[in-house]
Amino acid sequence: MLFSTPLTIGNLTLPHRAVFGPMAGFTDAPCRDLMAAHGAGFTVSEMVSARALTYGDHKTASLVKAKPNGAPYGVQLFGAVPEDFAKATALLLEAGYEFDFFDINMGCPAPKIVGNGPGGAGSRLMLTPELCGAITAAVVGAAGDKPVTVKMRKGWDDEHITAVDCARACEAAGAAAIAVHGRTRQQMYTPGLVDLGIIRAVKQAVAVPVIGNGDINTAADAVRMVTETGCDGVMLARGPLGDPWLFERVNAALEGTAEPKAPNLQARMNAMRRQVTQMVEEKGEYVAMPQARAQTMHYMRGLRGAAALRRECCTLQYLTDLDRLIERVFEEQRRAGDEEDSRERPFP
Ligand SMILES: Cc1cc2nc3c(=O)[nH]c(=O)nc-3n(C[C@H](O)[C@H](O)[C@H](O)COP(=O)(O)O)c2cc1C
């Protein structure tokens, strides 16, 4: 057992230490609810532009809106200018949205984001640790009693490994926790490059909780992250997509409880259907179904005929198409397998 007490972040007590990382285009309310139901210690919105909020952009509300789901929920802001962050923070509080903490994006590598604003947003902020501190101070100053967390990378590139300096600046400005994705911006999402050493260095440099992130796809990956870095929690982003049970496996390993039973194929298909149905209820079929294509593809991982099934995911247009896809999933497993009905077979 690695942890016997819950993790606290400011005035929040997390139900578990494996948290769900923000992902633009994926972490909408149905996805966050699903992960919370499987044990995510907190969830975060898709990133929203601090500047757009100050312009009164209504689309932003749909990205932020949430009902309580049992796990603390944070709204993530991106931007380049401290004043935008302060205004956006105050506006979100005034608007009365239900959320528990603010999170600041200092990790996004997308050209559109790092080229945003006067000096660039997302991971570009990490080239200037003082700016990271000033932005954190701006949010903390306007956030009232809501904790402020920061999500950063290792640095910009091999010549600018600034996570320790940035984390110190954010902590001094009042950040309540720091999540570190162990790759530089230059490394984008290249597999195999997550540097546990930088996460350990940040943990040793600050007193607030540090959450380790990057390539945690199994319970063993999470245990390794904790034992090699000393981090206080782990952040999972892509791993639990289509496999929310990963939270149960990781939490069991970190908390020393019995390994949970693997879900069978029917359970996976039920989860997928519930998630997409909720998306349609909240956004309407026209908006939800194109977004559901990427979500459903993750549920095909490890299935027989996965390549063809993923192609079918790409064509989803109506909720009824999803039922056809599910039928085809079972059909493919039956055809390829030697058992009569793979519905009853535990999923590997
Ligand atoms: C499609 C996609 C969208 C992402 N969007 C965000 C985002 O909006 N804010 C953020 O801080 N990180 C974002 N990330 C980064 C993830 O939160 C996470 O740091 C990264 O994927 C590494 O963790 P993982 O290996 O568990 O996926 C995104 C990642 C992906 C793949």
Main traits of this protein?
14 helices; 2 domains; two-stranded antiparallel ribbon; 11 strands; binds flavin mononucleotide; disordered C terminus; alpha/beta; 44% helix; 9-stranded parallel sheet
Describe the SSE topology.
Layout: E1 8-9, E2 12-13, E3 18-20, H1 29-37, E4 43-44, E5 48-49, H2 50-54, H3 59-64, E6 73-78, H4 82-95, E7 101-106, H5 111-114, H6 129-142, E8 148-155, H7 163-172, E9 177-184, H8 196-205, E10 210-213, H9 219-229, E11 233-236, H10 245-255, H11 265-283, H12 285-298, H13 306-313, H14 319-336
Parallel strand pairs: 3-11, 4-6, 5-6, 6-7, 7-8, 8-9, 9-10, 10-11
Antiparallel strand pairs: 1-2
Helix pairs in contact: 1-11, 4-6, 6-7, 7-8, 9-10, 11-12, 11-14, 12-13
The structure holds flavin mononucleotide.
Describe the protein in words.
The two termini are 25 Å apart. Helices cover 44% and strands 14% of the residues. The protein is globular. The strands form two sheets. Strands 3, 4, 5, 6, 7, 8, 9, 10 and 11 form a nine-stranded parallel sheet that branches. It has two domains: 8-255, TIM Barrel (Alpha-Beta Barrel), CATH 3.20.20; 265-344. The chain is built from 14 helices and eleven strands. The protein is an alpha/beta fold. Strand 8 (148-155), helix 7 (163-172) and strand 9 form a beta-alpha-beta unit. The longest helix has 19 residues, at 265-283. Bound molecules: flavin mononucleotide (FMN). Residues 21-26, 46-47, 76, 105, 107-108, 151, 181, 213-216, 236-239 line the site of flavin mononucleotide.
